[in-house]
Design a protein that fits this description.
eight-stranded antiparallel β-sheet, four-stranded antiparallel β-sheet, alpha+beta, RRM_dom, peptidyl-prolyl cis-trans isomerase activity, single chain, isomerase, 2 domains, 14 strands, Alpha-Beta Plaits, RNA-binding, elongated, Cyclophilin, Peptidyl-prolyl cis-trans isomerase, 11 helices
């Protein structure tokens, strides 16, 4: 029982584990048979981790419904999701593991439901995906294609700069009877107008080497940062790889060593209510490290202080003010709540439905995501508001932001 995926990165042959995941394998095979996956974009590429595909329009299309199961395609009154199998013997141990992308059910959060989207791993020992993605196959040929996808330049959302798409699907062996109403198209259908509208740079279009070098370098750095953030999330140092720093905390540096917490709080309190003000000190000598964090109750007060206090003299030192890039407090709160849960239930480690739902709820609180939008993410629903670009441009250049992060690491 095998399927050949012809992609713009190369051919990929998948062996299906019908004995362990019959429902997921039937869904995948029949979707391939009706050419549902044709021209589906490959997205959410995370180097040495995984990529995702199976949505005919992809996550960047406003018209996308996230993808449907074969039973929903054949009968529109049927729910578009189904319950995939999670066999205890199947783990994300090897590169090329193929699994259904799932999300928590709306009626029962303890259930995982899937539609058409699936994941292929690009690294080994990814137990983080166990119990979150339902394994139903493995890649047996086409690892060169996986390597091309792994090395592709992608934006901050993991979408390749140059389109990578499934061009065609060929069923090599199908043990299942066709469900009622299934009609196999006589030939591969052409892309729909909605699919063509999602094209950024066509997979057969050549990119001029002299063009976009700066953009490619920026994408490379973003991709590297994203991979590092994902690593921190997997080991528990970040609650979520794309967590954003709070916007009501100021980072203040170049302080005079004699400046005290009370001095800063008194000076900055004229802009609004301050929740905390701390000059960071050496743990051994208690000497000031000449930087501090000031947390305001309101974001607007924080922005006003940022605008007014740049290069102001305090104790004969001209200070520098920036918005904090630290998420350490958020991580500490996250770890604290999770550690308390582990002690209560007498267990340890990450993963499981409760941890996943906590992360989904956490992201909803931070990014303002609406629940139940019908989309199927790899592990979490995508979305969230973006920072105001005009304000972002008025902030410090990248070099100063990197300095702020270095200070944050020394603090926590």
């Amino acid at each position: 029982m095998s399927v050949l995926l012809e992609t713009s990165a190369g051919d990929i042959v998948i062996d299906l584990l019908v004995d362990y995941a019959p429902k997921s394998c039937e869904n995948f095979l029949k979707l391939c048979k009706i050419k549902y996956y044709n021209y589906a974009p490959i997205h959410s590429v995370q180097k040495d981790f995984s990529f995702q595909t199976g949505d005919p329009l992809g996550p960047n299309s406003k018209d996308s419904d996230g993808g449907k199961s074969i039973w929903s395609v054949l009968s529109p009154t049927t729910a578009k999701a189904f319950l995939p199998e999670f066999h205890p013997k199947l783990k994300h141990k090897e590169r090329g593991t193929v699994s259904m992308a799932t999300t928590a059910g709306l009626k029962d959060p303890d259930q995982r439901i899937g539609g058409s989207q699936f994941i292929i791993t690009l690294g080994d020992d990814l137990d983080y995906l166990d119990s979150k993605a339902a394994i139903f196959g493995k890649v047996v040929e086409g690892f060169d294609a996986l390597e091309k996808i792994n090395d592709a330049f992608a934006d901050s959302e993991g979408t390749p700069l140059k389109d990578i798409r499934i061009r065609h699907t060929v069923i090599l062996d199908d043990p299942y009877d066709d469900p009622p109403g299934l009609i196999e198209p006589p030939q591969s259908p052409l892309p729909t107008p909605a699919q063509l509208a999602t094209v950024r740079i066509a997979d057969d279009e050549e990119i001029a080497k002299e063009e976009d070098q700066e953009a490619l370098e920026m994408l490379r750095r973003e991709r590297e940062a994203r991979a590092q953030a994902l690593t921190l999330e997997m080991v528990g140092d970040l609650p979520f790889a794309e967590v954003k720093p709070p916007e009501n905390i100021l980072f203040v540096c170049k302080l005079n060593p004699v400046t005290q917490d009370e001095d800063l709080q008194l000076i900055f309190s004229r802009f609004g209510q301050i929740l905390s003000c701390e000059v960071v000190r050496d743990k051994r000598t208690n000497d000031s490290l000449q930087y501090a964090f000031i947390e305001f109750e309101n974001q607007k007060d924080c922005e006003m202080a940022y605008q007014k206090m740049q290069d102001v003299l305090i104790d004969d030192h001209r200070i520098h003010v920036d918005f904090s890039q630290s998420v350490s407090k958020l991580s500490d709160q996250w770890r604290g709540s999770e550690n308390a849960k582990r002690k209560k239930r007498g267990g340890g480690g990450w993963g499981g439905i409760q941890d996943l739902e906590k992360k989904r709820q956490y992201r909803a609180e931070v990014d303002g995501i609406r629940k139940g939008d019908g989309r199927y993410g790899m592990v979490f629903e995508k979305g969230g508001r973006k920072r105001d670009r005009s304000r972002s441009r008025s902030r410090s250049p990248p070099r100063r932001r990197e300095r702020s992060r270095d200070y944050d690491r020394r603090r926590y």
